[in-house]
Amino acid sequence: MCKLIGLMSNIIMLLALITEIASMVEFTNVKCTSWDNAFDNFEYCHLKSVNRSFKYLSLKVNLHKLPKLRFVNFSLLKRYNGYKPFLYNITVDACKALRHPKSNPIFNFFHGLFKKHSNMNHTCPFNHDLIVEKLPTNFMNQQVSGDLKFPHGDYLFHSDWYAYGINRATVDFFYSLS
């Protein structure tokens, strides 16, 4: 009985010492828009829920012309009364940032969110269809709850993809952090 009480008190003390609980990412929606169907179109863009605890994101954009991808705009928005800018809104020369990853750590963070589950893991040119395949929530949990701590809430990861100086596609990825 004494050992049980001692064990229970140790567990309670251990729980009291835990000051930080790991964040949980839950995918809520994804919207992909092609602004020029002669240039590109989305073959698929969806979230798939395998079971209660396993959800993943997949998208594939078919490129009809060899893109001269130069600029990508990444922004993070947090939901208050509507989605409002939160921390980051950057536009970068994607080819330069991929060639020299240390030159832009913010781009590196955003690109790291999907790079391992994508064929966009090399430098320019991109002369093939662009794919993000089965990006799971547990991978996002590791990325978002790593070095950068974000407050709980609903978020929108917005990206605009520019080729030849024209916005060709937009990907909006919605998720909750709890």
From TrEMBL:
* Matching Pfam families: DUF1091
Lineage: superkingdom: Eukaryota
Output the SMART domains linked to this UniProt entry: DM8
Sorted keywords for this record are: Signal
Q: Which residues form the signal peptide?
A: 1-23
- The keyword Signal is assigned to this record: yes
Name used for this protein in its record: GM12121
- Gene transcribed to yield this protein: Dsec\GM12121
